[in-house]
Amino acid sequence: MTYIRSFLNIVALPLILLFIWFLATLGEASFFVPTPQLLVETFINTWTADRFVGDVFPSLGRLIAGIALSILIGIVGGLLIGSFRWLRALLEPTLEFFRAIPPTVLIPVLMLLIGIGDEMKVSVIVLGAVWPILLNTIEGVRSMDEVLADTSRTYGMTKINSIRYLILPSAMPQIMAGIRQSLSIALILMVISEMFASTEGLGFAIVQFQRSFAIPEMWSGIVLLGLIGVVLSFIFQLAERWILGWYHGLREIEQSA
Amino acid sequence: MTDESSSPGLDPRGDAPRNREEEVHRLHRWESSAAADRRGGDIRRHTDVSTSAGLDIATRPDPAAPLTSVAQSGATGRATTSGPGRARRRRRRGWSTRLLGAAGVLGLLLTWEIVPRVGLVNERFMPPASEAIGGLITNFGLTDFWVAVFDTMHAWALGMVIAVTMATALGFIIGSSTFLRRFTNSTIEFLRPVPSVALIPLAVLLFGVGIESSLMLIVYACFWQVLIQVLYGVADVDSVAMNTARSYGLGPVARMRHVTFPTALPYIMTGVRLAAAVALILAVTAQLIIGTPGLGAEISRAQSGGNYVSMYALVLATGLLGVLINLVMRMIERKVLSWHSSVRTEVAA
Question: Biased-composition ranges for Basic and acidic residues (chain B) (predicted)?
C-alpha cells in the first residue's frame, strides 16, 4: 500500500502535466509548441545513431574532459592553496575576481587566443567549472580538525600519507558538494561554447534547428539536453553515495546516538 | 521531511541545535550547492560573535553550509576551531593578509603586462594589462558603456525580482503541506537539472532580441536555486516553536509570519545570493549569444569588429560587476540577518 502511494506520488504530477500539455495542443496546432505525440516521434527520428556519433558524442566527450580536468585542477590546486596560509592570502582576491567573471564572456577571449577547436571548448568548461571545486577544496582543507592534524604530525605520518588518509577524506564532503555544483555549470558551458562557434555538437544542432524553424526538432534537442542533465545528476548521486558512503553512515550513527 | 524531527529543547547550548543541524544536513545531503559559495570569512565571522561552539552551529546563517566533516566533529568537537583565541589570532593577521592579497593581484597584472610585451602571445590578440585597464577607464567616461551596464543590470534585477517572488511564494505553499511536497518532488527533481541555456533557441523564437529572452533564461535558472532553499527553510521549522505558536492561538497567517518566515529567511537569503551570481551569468550570456542589448552584446561586437582592447576592457568590467554584486549581496544578507546571530547571543549570555 505504501509502495503504491509513493509510486503515485512520483508519477501523478508529471502525468497531469503531460495531460494538460496534450489538452492544450489538442485544438489548432500551435506553431511553437508541438503535440506530445509529434515530439516523441520527432525525438526518435531526429536522434538517430548517426546524429549521436556526429553531434552528441563529441559534445559529451568535451563535457567529460572538461569535468575531469576541473576536478583534477580543482583538487590539486585546492590542496596546495589550502595547505599554505600565505599562498591563500596571496591568491584569494585574484581568485575572487576570476570567479566573479561570468565564464561565458571568456569564450570570445579564448577564441582569439587558442582558436575555435576542441581545446577552446574544453578550456571554457574548465574555466567555469573549476571554481566551485577549487574553493570548496580550499575550505575543506582549511577547516580540518587541528588535533587530528597535530596527531598525524606527532606520529610522523609522511606528507603523502597524510594527504591520502587525513586531508582528502576530511575535505571530501565539501569537495563533492563543489563537484555537484560544477556539473551543471559544465553542462551549460558545453552548450554555449557550441552555440558560439562550432560546426558540430549538441548546442550547434539545436541552434541550427531553431534557425531553420524546425520547431519539433528543436524541442527534441531541448528534451535531450534536459535528459543529459538529469542523467548527469543521477550518476553523480550514485558516485557520491559510493565515495561518501562511509561519511553518511557515520552521520547516521552519530545522529541516532 | 521534518515531520519526524525530534522536538528539541529550548536551550540553544544543549544538544538540541545539533540535532536540528543534523536534520538539516540530512535534508541537504544532495543540496550542498551553497557550500561552494560560502567563502572563507562567513562562518568564522559568526564564530567570532558567538561564544560557544554549540551556538556557532545554531546561528550559522548559511543553512546549506557543507556537511562538517567527521574528522572535525568526530574526534574533538568544534571547540578547536572557534572561541575567543581564534578571534584574536584573526585580527592580528588582518592587514598582512590584505597586503599579500594586493601583492597577488599586482603579480597577476604584471604577468599580464609582460607576457604580451615580450611576445609570448600575439600582442594584438592579448593586449597588455595597462592597455586593457586604460580601455576600461576610458569606458567609464562613455555613455554607451553605462547604457550597456544599465541594460545588463536591468535584466538582472527584473529577473531576480520575478524569480525570487515566484519561488518564495511557491516554496511557502508547497513547503507547508506534506502532501504537496511529496506530490511535486519528482517533478522538481526532474526539471531542476535541465540546463537553462537549453531554452535559448526557444527564447529567441518567442521573443527575439528583446529583454524578455534574457528574462526567461534568468528566471528559469534562478527560480530553482531559490525554490529549493525555501523548501528546506520551511521544512526546518522548529516543531516546539510551531506548537507553542499554535497553543497561543496564532492563526495560520500569524504563524507563517512569526514562525515559518524567520526560520526560512536565512535559507532564502542563501538562495538569493546564489541566484544573484547565476542571474548575472545568464544575463551576460543571453546578450552574448542572442544579442540582447547589454555588456555581453558589446563584447560580441568588439570581438567581431577586431577591437580587442575594448573587448578585454569589457570583460574586466563584467568581472568587476560580478565582484560588486557578490559584495552587495553578502552585505544585504548580513543586514537582513543581523537579528539572527545577535539575538541568540543575548539569550545565551
Answer: 12-48
Compute CA A211 distance to the chain's CA centroid, rounded to the nearest angstrom: 27
Residues B187 and B281 occupy one common structural domain = yes
Length of chain B in terms of residues written:
349
**Pick from B32, B39, B197: which is nearest to A192 by CB?**
B197
B59 inside domain: no
The answer to whether residue B73 scores a pLDDT higher than 60 is no
The pTM for the full model equals 0.77
Look at A108 and B35 and tell me if their CB atoms are within 8 Å: no
Taking an 8 Å cut-off on Cβ atoms, the answer to whether B75 and A113 are in contact is no
The class that CATH gives domain A34-256 is mainly alpha
C-alpha cell at B37: 559559495
Domain count, chain B: 2
Residues B70, B25: Cα–Cα separation, whole Å:
13
Q: Does A132 touch chain B (CB under 8 A)?
A: yes
With 0-12 / 13-18 / 19 or more C-beta atoms within 10 angstroms meaning exposed / middle / buried, residue B204 is buried
A127 touches chain B (CB under 8 A): no
Residue type, B63: P
In chain B, positions 96-125, which contact chain A (CB-CB < 8 Å)? 96-97, 100-105, 107-108, 121, 125
Q: Residues B181, B121: one domain?
A: no
A255/chain B closest Cα distance in angstroms: 7
pLDDT in tens, B129-172: 888 889 889 888 888 899 999 999 999 999 999 999 999 999 99
ipTM score for this prediction? 0.82
Domain enclosing residue B281, as ranges: 131-348
Domain shared by B119 and B147, yes or no? no
